[in-house]
Amino acid sequence: xxxxxxxxxxxxxxxxxxxxxxxxxxxxxxxxxxxxxxxxxxxxxxxxxxxxxxxxxxxxxxxxxxxxxxxxxxxxxxxxxxxxxxxxxxxxxxxxxxxxxxxxxxxxxxxxxxxxxxxx
Length: 120
Prior knowledge:
Number of domains: 1
Order of helices and strands: EEEEEEEEEEEEE
Shape: globular
Helix content: under 10%
Structural class: mainly beta
Strand order of the largest sheet: 3-4-5-12-7-10
Largest sheet: 6 strands, antiparallel
Number of strands: 13
CATH superfamily: Jelly Rolls
Number of helices: 0
Distance between the termini: 36 Å
CATH topology: Jelly Rolls
Radius of gyration: 15 Å
CATH architecture: Sandwich
CATH class: Mainly Beta
């Protein structure tokens, strides 16, 4: 249930996390007064991930746990726990779990709603 206290909006975990016990889900901020969207990613299978796509706004990836193989434009780079990557608007990107264990990332979209062009 969406809760508002004075000018603060609170979204409960059950309202956006599809798997609260695994911290995975999507949240679009526009309906809640925010100009960002958030994805909590949990990719357990090594080699699995998200194919190439782009957005008309920047996207920031925060690697919480594990290792990620990021495809950004013509480059592929590996990221690790604690690193933050910012992909500029319009640049094709995707990612895969680089293993050996699960990958946890928080993806922050600089838009109140998701706008994605899938390229794969």
